[in-house]
Amino acid sequence: MGDKAITKATGASLGLTSAQRGRTITVKVTAHRTGHSDGTATSKPTAKIPR
Predict the structure, then answer these.
(1) Residues 5-32 pLDDT 10s
(2) Residue 16: partners with Cβ closer than 8 Å, 6 or more residues away
(3) Closest by CA position to 28, among listed 44, 7, 49, 46
(4) Residue 50 sits in which domain range?
């Protein structure tokens, strides 16, 4: 919220709370693999989560 990570948001899905309502959500993925460079990707923001 305001470019802050959502605590425990590390899985394939996320149950939203009232704190996320009226905001947009982006997803940042970081990949690590031995012998390769790390990589990151960030999604486009969602539409605002309905209140």
Answers:
(1) 887 788 888 888 888 889 998 988 899 9
(2) 25, 49
(3) 44
(4) 1-51
- Determine if the pTM surpasses 0.85: no
| C-alpha triplet 6, 7, 11: angle, nearest 5° | 85
Which residues in 3-46 belong to E strands, given as ranges? Answer: 28-31, 39-42
**Cα–Cα nearest to 45, from 21, 33, 32, 28:** 28
- Beta strand spans in 1-51 (E): 28-31, 39-42
4-29 burial, b at 16+ Cβ within 10 Å, e below that, comes to eeeeeeeeeeeeeeeebeeeebeeee
